[in-house]
């Protein structure tokens, strides 16, 4: 739900594996006081049901061992809590989904902090442009609890098909940062998240009851394949949310606050309505030709603008060339819709329009009138002369198209070409007509020579 597209990779750890060397001991732990579903397979990620608008406690716990991160001792840290999409398809279309939600729910936020119930949180901030996030400072050495309220429900983002609905899952993610030397809280320390579904008031309780009743009906052997339901939900470690500043062209006197991780580069991204990026990269060649995997984020933005995809520059504002080229045709259709998705896929794959006919033409050397026999292996003639052919691609099966393409390929003034002939049996000259072109075999090879026109003005081309 941020203004930038984000594709986090969640590193779910298997709790059954022995922790022989605890090299990655998390400095913090976040526990949400809501029960997990009993209808989750043993090795799947937990799923927690929440009621819309109900306050749920997230306990912020200091999990450091002695000597871990001593620089934050006696200091505050900043945490950002977000509700984001779990599904990759919805992450791609995040901006459009958020805009649609705002239209239907003007003035509402997707996520709020219940300030009166929260304990130990200070300097609470909400950004009007980020309706899905709240941030605050807290002291790890003190008891801290943040009570959150999720106002969007899972079925609001489900397309209605075949008369039924299935709510999409969200994620609650907490990212924690320490203060840098210049006073900004941008030095990333820890991130964790959990999967949730949000129901209308009391809906989560009914769903939990339904799942519990279903599990009670299963045999003991079947129950072994499912996780037990826990009273609380432990957020598991994940990648930091790759949120970059949304520095768009606008008339705002002061920029909106942004949340950035020190592990990620930050870029300025052009507004979807602007004609050029805010920052021109060094590799300007990326904007005109093929998009290369080595293209930077700025170069990818330029390429999108150059190829008339300015509507999607904001959506792909965090994508490099390699990121964009990894998307499949189905991904792009889901993100951009059928028309623009197919067009973007073809542009990325450099899919040009296939010609209707291809012929190969070589200009006969002026020193020789008689066609010399060519070697089939390397194109050399018997006396060592090299014949260089030009590929002529015909989009139209017409004689005029042949004339025009020959003039372009061999740099001949078009108005000086009177007729194009094909040499037939016994050396006769046959006028090249549309019907003859339509009966050319694909990838035919021709030598051609020019002769002066009878009236002395221009010349004729003879294909041999």
From TrEMBL:
Lineage: Eukaryota, Metazoa, Chordata, Craniata, Vertebrata
Regions of compositional bias (Polar residues) in chain numbering: 244-288
Keyword Lipid biosynthesis attributed: no
GO CC, alphabetical: nucleus
One Gene Ontology MF term: DNA-binding transcription activator activity, RNA polymerase II-specific
Alphabetically ordered keywords of this record: DNA-binding, Nucleus, Phosphoprotein, Transcription, Transcription regulation
UniProt name for this protein: Upstream-binding protein 1
Keyword DNA-binding: yes
PANTHER family recorded: TRANSCRIPTION FACTOR CP2 (PTHR11037), UPSTREAM-BINDING PROTEIN 1 (PTHR11037:SF13)
Family affiliation: Belongs to the grh/CP2 family. CP2 subfamily.
Subcellular location, record wording: Nucleus
Organism superkingdom: Eukaryota
Region feature Disordered, mapped onto this chain: 200-231, 244-293
Basic and acidic residues bias locations: 202-226
Domain Grh/CP2 DB: 24-261
């Amino acid at each position: 739900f941020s203004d930038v597209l984000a594709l986090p990779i969640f590193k779910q750890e298997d709790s059954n594996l022995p922790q022989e060397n605890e090299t990655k001991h998390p400095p913090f732990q976040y526990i949400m006081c809501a029960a997990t579903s009993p209808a989750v397979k043993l090795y799947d990620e937990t799923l927690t049901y929440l009621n819309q608008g109900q306050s749920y406690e997230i306990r912020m716990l200091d999990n450091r061992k002695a000597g871990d991160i001593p620089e934050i001792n006696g200091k505050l840290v900043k945490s950002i809590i977000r509700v984001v999409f779990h599904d990759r398809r919805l992450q791609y279309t995040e901006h459009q989904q958020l805009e649609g939600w705002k239209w239907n729910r003007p003035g509402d936020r997707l996520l709020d902090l219940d300030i009166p119930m929260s304990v130990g949180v200070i300097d609470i901030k909400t950004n009007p442009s980020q309706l899905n996030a709240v941030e605050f400072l807290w002291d790890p050495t003190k008891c801290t609890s943040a009570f959150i309220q999720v106002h969007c429900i899972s079925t609001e983002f489900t397309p209605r098909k075949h008369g039924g609905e299935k709510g999409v899952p969200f994620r609650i993610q907490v990212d924690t940062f320490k203060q840098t030397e210049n006073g900004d809280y941008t030095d990333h320390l820890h991130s964790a998240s959990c999967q949730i579904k949000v129901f209308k008031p009391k809906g989560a309780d009914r769903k939990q009851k339904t799942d519990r009743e279903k599990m009670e009906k299963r045999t003991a052997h079947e129950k072994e394949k499912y996780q037990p339901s826990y009273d609380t939900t432990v957020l598991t470690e994940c990648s930091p949310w790759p949120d970059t500043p949304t520095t768009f062209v606008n008339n705002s006197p002061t920029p909106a606050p942004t949340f950035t991780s020190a592990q990620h580069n930050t870029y300025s991204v052009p507004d979807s309505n602007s004609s050029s990026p805010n920052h021109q990269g060094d590799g300007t060649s990326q904007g005109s030709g093929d998009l290369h995997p080595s293209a930077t984020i700025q170069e990818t933005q330029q390429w999108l603008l150059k190829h008339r995809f300015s509507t999607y520059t904001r959506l792909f504002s965090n994508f490099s060339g390699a990121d964009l080229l990894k998307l499949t045709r189905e991904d792009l259709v889901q993100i951009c819709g059928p028309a623009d998705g197919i067009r973007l896929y073809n542009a990325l794959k450099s899919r040009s329009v296939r010609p209707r006919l291809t012929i190969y033409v070589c200009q006969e050397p002026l020193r020789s009138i008689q066609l010399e026999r060519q070697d089939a292996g390397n194109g050399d003639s018997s006396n060592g002369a090299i014949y260089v052919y030009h590929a002529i691609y015909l989009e139209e099966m017409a004689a005029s198209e042949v004339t025009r393409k020959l003039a372009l390929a061999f740099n001949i003034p078009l108005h000086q070409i009177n007729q194009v002939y094909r040499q037939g049996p016994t050396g006769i000259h046959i006028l090249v007509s549309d019907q003859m072109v339509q009966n050319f075999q694909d990838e035919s090879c021709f030598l051609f020579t020019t002769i002066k026109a009878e009236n002395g003005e221009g010349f004729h081309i003879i294909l041999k």
